């Protein structure tokens, strides 16, 4: 039962951004302040993709990255759950968006989400070029060449342990690199890489958002979904009894690369 202050009534379609009990179950306990209306045009399966992936993408772009219309945005890992939402959000804001993916299906998903171009970060053979800060990159040179300007203003990075050094070589002056994901692997990083371009490298961690920031995020997402500018992508659906398959799909996608969200479905009779 939602608290009266939420304005929600029993029977309304909702999604949530966090739970008190976990969500791999038929029922969940949720703080009513973290419940949000689900637009009629959005399915429950899509609703499962909003609270964390879409909200993280919005926070990275607009609250941390301070992106503005007309800027160039690279979504490094654009075919995953957060990545596709980020591509769609940035494109709807009037940005020139380039995304990377690891499969042909991922490339097509990135383009369908609104990217101006997409590159495959697993295909070898991209020319090695020397860029502004003397970082050698391969496939990133293809992404950079598609911008037609001095570099990317905002970059969302899903695997900073692997890509952060090269990322600094494709940024425009005063560009912002937003780290959404990274393994806990140590890397060799020369701080001088950020100095000539006065780059900002920042972390993105949704649980750090304040109540006010979360409210702003979900109000904006609701409007975007109602306007048809945000359509969460369900890549794979499995039943609750197959939850192990869902975890395996996240770790090692059966299609060779991530495409959208992996959603666990609850039986219809519940």
Put simply, the count of helices is 8
Mean pLDDT: 88
Supply the helix-strand structural class.
Answer: alpha/beta
Order of helices and strands: EEHHEHEHEEEHEHEEHEHE
Main beta sheet: 6 strands, parallel
Tally of extended strands? 12
* Helix proportion range: 25-40%
Amino-to-carboxy terminus distance: 17 Å
* Spatial strand sequence of the major β-sheet: 5-4-3-8-9-10
Write up this protein.
By secondary structure, the chain is an alpha/beta fold. Helices cover 30% and strands 20% of the residues. It contains eight helices and twelve strands. It has helices spanning 44-47, 50-64, 81-92, 104-112, 139-145, 160-167, 211-226, 243-251; strands at residues 14-16, 35-37, 72-76, 96-101, 117-120, 129-130, 136-137, 152-157, 171-179, 200-203, 234-239, 261-265. It has a six-stranded parallel beta sheet with strand order 5-4-3-8-9-10, with helices on both faces. The chain has a two-stranded antiparallel ribbon with strand order 1-2. β6 and β7 (136-137) form a beta hairpin. Residues 125-136 have low confidence and may be disordered.
């Amino acid at each position: 039962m939602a608290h009266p202050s939420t304005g929600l009534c029993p029977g309304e379609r909702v999604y949530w951004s966090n739970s008190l009990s976990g969500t791999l179950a038929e029922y969940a306990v949720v703080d009513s302040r973290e419940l949000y209306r689900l637009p009629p045009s959005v399915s429950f399966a899509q609703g499962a993709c909003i609270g964390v992936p879409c909200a993280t993408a919005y926070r990275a772009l607009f609250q941390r990255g301070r992106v503005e219309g007309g800027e160039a945005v690279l979504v490094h890992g654009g075919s995953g759950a957060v990545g596709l939402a980020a591509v769609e959000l940035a494109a709807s804001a009037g940005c020139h968006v380039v995304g990377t993916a690891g499969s042909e299906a991922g490339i097509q998903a990135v383009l369908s989400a609104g990217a101006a171009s997409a590159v495959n970060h697993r295909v070898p053979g991209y020319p090695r070029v020397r860029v502004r800060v003397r970082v050698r990159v391969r496939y990133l040179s293809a992404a950079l060449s598609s911008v037609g300007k001095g570099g990317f203003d905002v970059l969302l990075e899903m695997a900073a342990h692997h890509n952060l050094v090269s990322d600094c070589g494709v940024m425009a002056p005063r560009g912002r690199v937003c780290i959404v994901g990274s393994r806990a692997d140590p890397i060799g990083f020369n701080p001088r890489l950020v100095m000539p371009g006065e780059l900002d490298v920042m972390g993105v961690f949704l649980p750090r958002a304040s109540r006010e920031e979360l409210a702003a995020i979900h109000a904006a997402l609701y409007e975007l979904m109602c306007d048809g500018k945000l359509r969460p992508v369900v890549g794979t659906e499995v039943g609750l009894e197959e939850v192990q398959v869902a975890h395996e799909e996240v770790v090692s996608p059966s299609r060779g690369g991530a495409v959208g969200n992996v959603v666990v479905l609850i039986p219809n009779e519940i």
